[in-house]
From TrEMBL:
Residues 71-265 form the Rho-GAP domain. It comes from the Eukaryota. Transmembrane segments: none annotated. SUPFAM superfamilies: GTPase activation domain, GAP. This is BCR activator of RhoGEF and GTPase. SMART domains: RhoGAP. One of its GO terms (biological process) is signal transduction. GO terms for cellular component: membrane. GO terms for molecular function: GTPase activator activity.
Amino acid sequence: MKIPKEDGENTDRIMGKGQVQLDPQALQDRDWQRTVIAMNGIEVKLSVKFTSREFSLKRMPSRKQTGVFGVKIAVVTKRERSKVPYIVRQCVEEIERRGMEEVGIYRVSGVATDIQALKAAFDVNNKDVSVMMSEMDVNAIAGTLKLYFRELPEPLFTDEFYPNFAEGIALSDPVAKESCMLNLLLSLPEANLLTFLFLLDHLKRVAEKETVNKMSLHNLATVFGPTLLRPSEKESKLPANPSQPISMTDSWSLEVMSQVQVLLYFLQLEAIPAPDSKRQSILFSTEV
């Protein structure tokens, strides 16, 4: 509820809290379950339906060539004549302007209607998008950035290299692991690589404010790992002959853990070395 303050601004006031007990049987039911939550004289009517993570988080192929959401990153950067998509630069800039000390930035969900409004504005190249962003809660902007990466038709780390990253992060020899992971990273297409490095630097700056925003490198890797690495078609990365039977849920959890560890590895590196002068000129160019 909005309450007017003396200075004319509005502030939010919590009028009631409630919770709903989820029935395990609902996990087997494909229909919507309707329920009512009573709290402090207020009744909230809800419709709830369970969707497995395997399907709700799966990347869907897109034939879209207009807009930016669901469009290949190389198509967007070529159209924009940029090295890093405009949407990524704008969201990062706004978050660094006023969201670096926001508790739970990137973890706390933004308002869904605000995120969808920003998505629509970026898709039609709305010139007023920067004004919209300045007036929205910073968590909605963080949510828009995450949604962009989640809706890419293939992950930023690409479907081609994803299995190799999963294998590389499992290496026990630290020297072999570093060589493998860096070579794989620098093999990514240019638009993917530059966008990742741009995002990586930003996330490191966010983690520098961990004492205030409570977002450590591990927390950020947990949020962004699956978003950046989850493949278009889900493939199991489990051992061919596991010693113990592994359920679908365990399989999914192990794969997510691997995705988190890959991103955490790069977040913890002090620098990404460039193997040749050409790559170095691309990596350290300030023109994005």
